[in-house]
Amino acid sequence: MPAAEHAAIRHIVTTVDASETGHRALETAVRLAAVMGAELEGVFVEDINLIRMSGLPFLREVRVWSLAEEAISAPRMQRELRTLARYAERMLAQAAKKMGVPWSFQVWRGRAEATSLSRAFSADILSLGRVSALVSSRAWATARPRTRQPRETVSSICVLFSDSEQAIRAVTTACFLAKDMDAPLNVILPDIQADKMIALKEKARILLDAHEQPARFVKITGTDIQSLGQAAGLSGISILITEAEHALLQQAGLERCLEALFCPVLLVR
Amino acid sequence: MTVKQLEADRLYQRCDPEQFDFNTTEEVENLSEVIGQPRAVDAVRFGLGIQHKGYNLFALGPTGTGKHALVQRYTTEHAAMASLPPDWCYINNFQQPHEPRALRMPPGRGVELERNMEQLVEDLHHVIPTAFESDEYRTRTQAIEEEHNEKREKALQRIQSTAEQKKIALIQTPTGFTLAPMEKGEALSPEEYEKLPEDERKRIEKDTEELHEQLRQMLLEVPNWQKEVRNRMSELNREIAASAVVHLIDALRETYRDFPKVIKYLDEVAQDVIENFRHFLHLEGEKHGMQFPGAGLAQDEREMDMDMRYRINAFMTHEGHDGAPVIYEDHPSYNNLIGRVEHRAELGTLITDFTMIRPGALHRANGGYLILDAHKVLMQPFAWESLKRALQAEEIRIESLAQLMSLISTVSLEPEPIPLDIKVILLGEPYLYYLLSNLDPEFNELFKVAVDFDYRMDRSPENQQLYARLIGTLVRKESLRHFDCSAVARVIEYCARRLEDSEKLLIHTHSLTDILREADYWATQHQHGTVTKDDVQHAIDARIYRVDRIREHLQEEIRRGTLLIDTAGTKAGQVNGLSVLDLGNFMFGRPSRITARVRMGDSNVVDIEREVELGGPIHSKGVFILSALLGARYLPDRPLAFSASLVFEQSYGEVEGDSASAAELYALLSALADTPIHQSLAVTGSVNQQGEIQPIGGVNEKIEGFFDICNVRGLTGEQGVIIPGANIMHLMLREDVCKAVEAGKFAIYAIDTIDDGIELLTGIAAGERDGQGVFPDGSVNRRVEDTLIRYAQTMQAYASKGDQGNSTQQLVFP
After folding, report:
1. Are the beta carbons of B662 and B685 closer than 8 angstroms?
2. Containing domain of residue A187, as a range?
3. What is the distance between the alpha carbons of residues A162 and A172, in angstroms, rounded to a whole number?
4. Number of domains making up chain A
5. Catalytic machinery residues of B
6. What's the CA gap between B492 and B458, in Å, rounded?
7. Do B216 and A53 lie within an 8 Å CB cutoff?
8. Number of other CB atoms surrounding residue B604 within 10 Å
9. What is the pLDDT of residues B508-558, one digit of tens each?
């Protein structure tokens, strides 16, 4: 692999939270940092909305498990957010120590939107789990039934490829990750003309051969999330790696992607 | 008078080597049968053949008589014709794991089942993960999850949509959910909210409350949905596990279709595997802490713990064996007999399971024969009781001693008892048999067959031939040099001497083997190719020499005059008695001076040994008998008025036995008659109340003991020993004694009554009562009686004077 593509990735930022995708985003970022010798920065997102709404007199919080209700006060909300932040920091520390990765941690207060977060940090790679406090359809992702099933493996790593420098770095990142996790790799190609497709595919193949990484090429037939899901097929997507400015993200929206795909998304700059 | 002076040929029964038709034992056939034990052989055959409860055997006999060898031989022959007993296995009791179940299998099938179950577990470790990694399982679980997710999503979406329409957002907080009014994508702060018109605020609060209630209702439903998902997942898991397990189990069911208990067990295994399928999925431990029982154990060890549930403890198998088992348990402790449950230490505690049940000797011999040493069984705590319990109940119940004694209260294993079908043969000394028979009420019920081993057999010509073959057999067994016929003859003579009976042969194989080995040693020393008579004699002499230091010292003291023994002259009230000192493996004779003193008195014969508690009860009995004899023989119709004291002079140890009672009586008679006794003679024999001389033990040693003293001082031709006539058959005297007798330098006299010995000892006739009941004048008996009459009259006179009330009158002694 060209030294420049690898050496340039020095700083990886990942969101850290207790959700399932948050765990996976952290794990992915740690692995990547270990493989690439990069520094890892964990970010706990303190949603400004939670602070703002605290103090509304009629607001009540319903606890998920106990169903107990309690008024929301700003001090209590801040205290709980601090507790969550400490927990997130511990998770980061444990994961990083296990892989021998240098790490740092910060709490970022702002609008819990992936887009805002993406603009706030200028890392080489940004690993995103769930960001928004707004309840998504997967709100109980951490509360799934505890039936003992076979250990979940990474079903597939998908990388969106286009003709850009960041896309090349995305593919390189995907190769490292796929090799480290021993996971299948899908290279998602845009819906373009046939001759351009061939050239793009060849370009991707050269990159893959340089890393001795087998991959499946899949052509996406639209620019929405459903198309991406269809392209991934039955195996689903465990990790999505893309350049930060990919057309699909622009079109569908980063938040929608995170909510719909329910997997960590790695934005490569 | 029936005094016999014995000729030399009566003193030793020689074994003539000419009777043998071989030169050395090399030409002699091995003995295939047991000799001299017809009673024992008959009993063993009976005991092994009868099949009723309680007919266990007790082989009683001295050690070294071949009990074990004979019993082992016949038992092995019998067992070879019997059928192989079944295999026994212990299996897990899934309902009550601390009560493992016993499973009976045909011979050899127990190990087969064990192997099949091991294979099953190995196969399950492949099949079950494969089933749970299959596309079908993954798809179906995902489908259940998706269905559940959709339900939740739809419920949330309904609330979310309704909320959005009312400009309210459903927000996830650190610990739950809340509903907050939004404006342009941001939650309203309290300040912004206060700025809203009142009706707007009321509207917001009302809508929030309604939505809040909807949210609460939905959250209330969530646990039910989750439970439903769990149930469906469990069902799916069971179904998948069952599909993986069933064909493996079916194959085993087919193999063991004729064994309903095995089929039942396999069904239980299948059920348990389905319930515990997770064990086969090699799941990692929880990342957030120790979750598994036995935490701290390696994954492999936890897997082993679970795999163990499906193992078979092929507890007792007979693969590769023929016939019924014959087991000899050399160390019959409680655990070695009954079996035990082993434990292993794990994280500071002791744990166990059914795979750690170990068989005992009763299990190993079940269906066959168990040979035990009775003494060893009785010496082991609880062994005897447990053996009896097992035989009574006809089952083997494994219990730990600690539980039995209620020393511990923790739950241990209680394995299902195994039915017991066994024949037990105890080997022991006769005293053990008699003790148990008298004191243990259960013994006679459980050990009905006594196998009584003799220690001797008749010394007939036929038996001597057999004995020669026995010697030949032992020589080969011990890899010794062969014995020539003279050596064989000498051995036979030695064994008769050991038995103290010229007409019997000792069949104590241990003793016989010892002398053969020692003779072989001396043959080696003498560089003889075969063992000769001289080698045997050398062995005998060397053996005696090794242990006769004390005899040598005693004889030296007699020779030096420290111990006073007369071998010439005469003395009244003194006689040479003979005793034997038994040093365990060596016995020798020792002359003792016995003296008697008499005076007028109140008719008691004081046994001084008894008075100072040096006389044993049998010795005391002898003295009482001779006292009674005196009373009955002399002045039966008058009171006796004498006191006497008897003592073994210079004896400072315990005296037991009645073999000196004749000598004591002679001393007493001599004192009463004031008639001296020839000190050149020694006397041995027991006397009864009729005045008959009864046989005694150690006659050869006693004679030789006195002979040695006389020999050292120089034989005069007047010396000799008086022995009971009944002991003639026991004579196997040393060659030098026989030669002395033959040369007329020493004599052996055999008597039958007390009167026979009186003339020998005193030179005066004993005398018999005439028709008037009077002894002849001058006879010893007459003198004795005259003395007793005089004492009686004197006593009477003293008594009369006393009756006259003249208390001041002094007694005048004649």
Report:
1. yes
2. 157-268
3. 13
4. 2
5. 659, 702
6. 12
7. no
8. 12
9. 888 899 999 999 999 999 999 999 999 999 999 999 999 999 999 988 988
